[in-house]
């Protein structure tokens, strides 16, 4: 245990832009939780490396351990006694799991669609961003592969049959996402964080999902317009960036 705690922790993730420490939802979740829990993590962006094709990001490396995906990484950090949730009651812990499930089911499909499936956003923002950070010839491969993965994930979540076309589920995707954002805004109310004065894993997940949608210069996004009307949610994102990441991005 002590050896692991003493071991340096490295986080591989996509790099930052738009005033964010990373443009990638899963990477943002882990970066935020590490800040909230006081974990000292060395961030290694995979941008401009061959890992843009081979790495599963985010990936936490610590000693002989390599952990991927936000939930396993957060569990690993908790075992190292970096726990942002230690003051939560059992009820709050259950609420956390319920809201994270809500984000995955209701908001993720719309975020994926906004960045990877919407033709205007993909052509003008997403594809150029990821292509410019992938070495030749991966710049031709990485964006299209991610777009195909996003489309498959959306249809898996929302399609009632394997042959569903994306156009048949778009309306439902965005109405579900707006409903999810409204629920989050209602739950947050006038607080800085979802459970009082200190941020927890739920705040990390909400931040990871919402910050790219809020900060990206999207040519086309009714969902972004809806989000920007929810002033307490945008203030929540700005507050986390100012309190936890301002030294990382002095010009952000």
Structure characterization notes:
By secondary structure, this protein is an alpha+beta fold. 60% of the residues lie in helices and 7% in strands. The chain contains 11 helices and 4 strands. A 4-stranded mixed beta sheet has the order 2-1-3-4, covered by helices on one side. Helix 2 (25-37) crosses helix 9. The protein is globular and about 45 Å long. Residues 1-5 have low confidence and may be disordered.
How do you describe this structure in short?
This protein has 11 helices and 4 strands.
Mean pLDDT: 90
Tally the beta strands.
Answer: 4
Cα-to-Cα separation, first versus last residue = 37 Å
Strand content: 5-15%
Question: What share of the residues lie within helices?
Answer: 55-70%
**Strand/helix succession:** HEHEHEEHHHHHHHH
Radius of gyration: 18 Å
What characteristic shape results from the CA principal axes? globular
- Uncertain residue segments: 1-5
Strand arrangement within the widest β-sheet reads 2-1-3-4
């Amino acid at each position: 245990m002590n050896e692991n705690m003493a071991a340096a922790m490295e986080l591989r993730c996509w790099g930052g832009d738009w005033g964010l420490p990373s443009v990638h939802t899963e990477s943002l979740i882990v970066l935020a939780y590490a800040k909230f829990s006081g974990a000292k993590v060395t961030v290694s962006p995979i941008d401009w490396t061959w890992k843009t094709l081979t790495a599963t990001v985010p990936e936490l490396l610590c000693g002989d351990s390599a952990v991927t995906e936000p939930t396993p990484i957060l569990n690993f950090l908790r075992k190292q006694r970096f726990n942002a949730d230690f003051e939560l009651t059992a009820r709050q812990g259950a609420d956390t799991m319920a809201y994270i499930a809500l984000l995955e089911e209701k908001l993720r499909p719309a975020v994926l669609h906004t960045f990877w499936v919407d033709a205007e956003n993909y052509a003008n923002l997403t594809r150029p961003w990821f292509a410019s950070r992938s070495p030749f010839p991966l710049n031709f491969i990485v964006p299209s592969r991610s777009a195909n993965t996003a489309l498959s994930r959306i249809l898996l979540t929302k399609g009632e049959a394997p042959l569903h076309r994306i156009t048949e589920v778009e309306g439902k995707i965005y109405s579900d996402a707006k409903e999810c954002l409204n629920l989050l805004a209602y739950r947050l109310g006038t607080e800085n964080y979802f459970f009082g004065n200190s941020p927890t894993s739920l705040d990390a997940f909400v931040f990871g999902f919402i910050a790219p949608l809020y900060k990206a210069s999207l040519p086309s996004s009714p969902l972004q317009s809806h989000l920007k009307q929810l002033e307490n949610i945008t203030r929540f994102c700005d507050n986390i960036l100012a309190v936890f990441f301002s030294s990382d991005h002095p010009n952000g």
